[in-house]
């Protein structure tokens, strides 16, 4: 193969899917297969290359593939014949193999896909095999928002790992890979913590504040149509987000949820957002010293917990505050310095950080922020706040290490909530 065959295409999609989880049953396996097939069927390989890595739950090993015009040799993964594999037979049925080179690789050992090293290796693979002017990176699997993403284990290990946000972002840096748009089909990833951590790894992210349905296949035909030559990262992000919003407006695509809110978040605005959040944090810390002020602020904070995992109507988590709601509630405390700080943060989040937001209801309004549950019922219902003291202490240590915590001091509020009236 000659070097000239490696000319950049306008776009490449790098798709990283983990169907592994600790549960005995999971719909992710079937969804992952269908998603990969739909993605490849929808691609115009004259304009877009696709690299994918899938870790299935019911089939040992990890599968990696590249569909593009140029396929260099790769060490570590063993090539397999796609025609002899049920999943790849179906995928190839929709691909013009006369003009598209297809290679499927299998790593027989069961890699820990929730490892930063494994993700970094995939991103390196994607850049090498699918050189492009711009990249969309798609993630599909379990997530805990501020506390991390994915769930998997080392071979022979029973306890599952979570890929924490700092390590997740380091995988992008180690692979020397900056994405134009990151798309999360993962629960709770639309949060200020993730946005700030990813600010140097991508231009935009598309993510939900709530539960992301694990069933069904996303509208990859519409997604691929947005990947036009010369389109900016914002234009593509808006096209992807709009197609997803239309898709989720159909109740059949929401796994019986009343709403699946999604936002397009401008990661370039994260630095200024953090400055405004830092001012609000300092104001709340000052309010803590005055019992009357503290009670009023605590009431506004508690009123901004808008979701619960066991609610089909508002499928979020009570450990997450809706930031626009929070700012609106605090803004009503006229004369309090907290109100002015909240107004400034709220305006910036709604106009600059969240560039597009769509939901089927008016509960989640843009993006979220972690705030430890105070009431026992909220603690019981939360996926993100552990009952086990050892696990909770570990999560708190990781939260304090987040870039947003270091930049704003928000962990002083998030991990030590203002007291509420009993």
Question: What would you note in describing this structure?
Answer:
With 422 residues, the protein is of the alpha/beta class. It folds into two domains: 3-269, Rossmann fold (3-Layer(aba) Sandwich); 270-414, no CATH class. Helix content is 37%, strand content 19%. The protein is built from 15 helices and 14 strands. The strands form three sheets. It has a ten-stranded mixed β-sheet, sandwiched between helices. A two-stranded antiparallel sheet has the order 7-8. Helix 1 (28-42) links the parallel strand 1 and strand 2. Helix 1 (28-42) runs parallel beside helix 2 (86-92) and helix 3 (116-129) packs parallel to helix 4. It is globular, with a radius of gyration of 22 Å. The chain starts with 8 loop residues before the first strand and ends in an 8-residue tail after the last helix. The model is unreliable at 1-5, 21-25 and 70-75 (pLDDT under 50).
> What's the domain count?
2
Low-confidence parts: 1-5, 21-25, 70-75
Which CATH class of the largest domain? Alpha Beta
In what order do the strands lie side by side in the largest sheet? 4-5-3-2-1-6-9-10-11-13
Q: What share of the residues lie within helices?
A: 25-40%
CA(first)-CA(last) distance: 72 Å
SSE string? EHEEEHEHEEEHEHEHHEHHEHHEEHHHH
What fold name stands as the CATH topology of the largest domain? Rossmann fold
Average pLDDT across residues?
87
Q: Report the structural category.
A: alpha/beta
The shape is: globular
- Counted by DSSP, the helix tally is 15
């Amino acid at each position: 193969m000659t070097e000239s065959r490696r000319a950049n295409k306008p776009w490449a999609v790098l798709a990283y899917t983990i169907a592994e989880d600790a549960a005995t049953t999971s719909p992710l396996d079937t969804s992952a297969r269908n998603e990969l097939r739909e993605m490849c069927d929808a691609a115009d390989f004259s304009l877009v290359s696709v690299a994918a890595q899938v870790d299935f739950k019911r089939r040992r090993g990890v599968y990696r593939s590249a569909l593009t015009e140029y396929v260099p040799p790769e060490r570590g993964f063993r090539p397999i014949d796609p025609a002899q594999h049920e999943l790849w037979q179906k995928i190839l049925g929709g691909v013009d193999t006369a003009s598209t080179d297809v290679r499927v690789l299998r790593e027989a050992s069961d890699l820990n896909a929730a490892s930063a090293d494994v993700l970094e290796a995939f991103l390196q693979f994607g850049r090498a095999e699918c050189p492009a002017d711009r990249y969309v990176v798609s993630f599909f699997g379990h997530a805990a928002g501020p506390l991390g993403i994915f769930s998997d284990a080392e071979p022979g290990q029973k306890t599952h790992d979570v890929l924490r946000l700092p390590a997740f972002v380091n995988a992008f840096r180690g692979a020397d890979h900056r994405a134009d748009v990151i798309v999360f089909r993962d629960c709770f990833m639309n949060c200020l913590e993730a946005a700030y951590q990813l600010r140097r790894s991508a231009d935009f992210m598309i993510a939900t504040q709530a539960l992301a349905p694990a069933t069904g296949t996303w509208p990859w035909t519409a997604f691929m149509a947005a990947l036009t030559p010369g389109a900016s990262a914002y234009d593509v992000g808006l096209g992807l987000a709009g197609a997803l919003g239309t898709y989720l407006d159909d109740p059949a695509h929401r796994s019986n949820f009343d709403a699946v809110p999604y936002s397009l978040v401008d990661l370039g605005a994260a630095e200024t957002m953090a400055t405004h959040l830092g001012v609000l944090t300092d104001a709340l810390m000052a309010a803590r010293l005055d019992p009357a002020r503290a009670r009023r602020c605590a009431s506004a904070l508690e009123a901004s917990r808008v979701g619960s995992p066991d609610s089909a109507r508002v499928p979020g988590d009570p450990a997450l505050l809706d930031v626009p709601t929070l700012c609106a509630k605090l803004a009503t405390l006229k004369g309090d310095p907290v109100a002015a700080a909240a107004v400034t943060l709220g305006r910036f989040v709604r106009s600059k950080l969240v560039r597009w937001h769509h939901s089927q209801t008016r509960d989640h309004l843009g993006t979220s922020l972690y705030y430890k549950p105070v009431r026992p019922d909220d603690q019981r219902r939360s996926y993100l706040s552990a009952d086990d003291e050892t696990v909770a202490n570990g999560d708190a240590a990781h939260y304090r290490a987040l870039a947003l915590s270091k930049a704003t001091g928000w962990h002083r509020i998030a991990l030590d909530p203002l007291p509420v009236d009993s």
